[in-house]
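Need tokens for this chain, all 471 residues.
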Amino acid sequence: MKRYEQVAKGLTGQIEQGVYLPGERLPGVRRLSEQFSVSISTIMQAHQLLEDRGLVQARPRSGYYVRTTLGRLPEQPAMTNPQPEPAHITGQQMAMQLSRATRQPGMIQLGAAIPHHSFLPTRAINRALLSVTRHQQQRSAGYEFPPGSAELRQQIARRMLDAGCQVAPSEIIVTSGCQEALALCLRTVARAGDIIALESPTFYGLLQVVESLGLKALEIPTHPQHGISLDALKLAIEQWPVKACAIVANFNNPMGYCMPDDNKQALVALLGEHGIALIEDDVYGDLAFDHHRPPAAKRFDTDGKVLYCSSFSKTLSPGLRLGWVVPGKYREQMEYQKYITSLAAPTLPQLAIADFLQRGGYDRYLRQVRGQYARQVARITRAVGRYFPEGTRVTQPAGGFVIWVELPENTDAMAIFHRALAKGISIAPGPIFSAARKYTNFIRINCAQPWDEQLEAAIALLGRLTLAQPD
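Here are the structure tokens for all 471 residues:
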């Protein structure tokens, strides 16, 4: 065995033993040269071998990092195959039960996609809130009528450049979270009885909005790596009078995929040809594991028919309830809808987040938390592979912090949901991610929880509950 192969073998062992975790940077070449008592060129050869084997990846001017999908990972689920016809949504009361579970003390929160407070920059946000309270007392007590704080909209416009979107602050409307943004979009472009094309599975909060507005959901087959099937969507548009399409293109919830840029461009073009609005939810776009922020589908919008929604709930603070929408050609109607719905978004959070962004705190925070989420997703995925029954499949997201788990065919996810709650563990059962209550043998797991013995024990218990017969 050549010397560089010995070094590669040694580093491989350290990675498998957890000395270097997924997403972490390996020591520099000089330090490794000293540790293994070899030349720098030998270390570089070892790096190349590890990269060829898919264990590490090079980042320009940064070094070598352990890949975020290591070990014997379960296979991914196949492309979905929902019913090819519109349907009224039923059974979303389960989503409210999941919401109530998040308030129970001592519950291990693997259900709702809410980051544990240890992953959030809580102290920095609190300092920004105190600063605004101290220096802008009069303003923070008043309304910031739509479109919202000018300072915040300016900072958001700058952030959206990273997503490939050049928008003016005047094009942005601040909302009370992304959920309100989605509701405003649907109320603006659709009326009761209209058909909305959706990924399948899709975020259950979106399904709740669709249901509340009396709209019909048309579920479109979706691939766990590439996203919504453009061919299937095209056929659906030719068959049904689709009014709008709603997607999460970047690190989708619940599947975690990032739609390729070519697909995003083709999607925008397809919908544009048929005069169909695209509602894009991009709340996870900033949470790429490889630190490369993917462009939004909005980037390819040339006629203002893409309504872009996002928020700071998955990155900075769920409790501040601060989001925004770039409604394109619908701006005037959207601004009016925001006003009659809730008058204004809360003023103090708007000013505080604007201050936090202006000081550069957001970029520093993202550099830290992306690696943390990559490690947590990798750890929990490996734990699912270790403790769940043979035949379990798991998605392999490249960002965000949720995984979509396909259990053996005859498994009852709803029964597991109830048994897990009784044991103090919250999970999200698959049927709430479907208008037609499909995915009865799927669950979604929130990985934004600190890894410790208790969490590993919870994953192991879930595996045992999966193996157990229904009550």
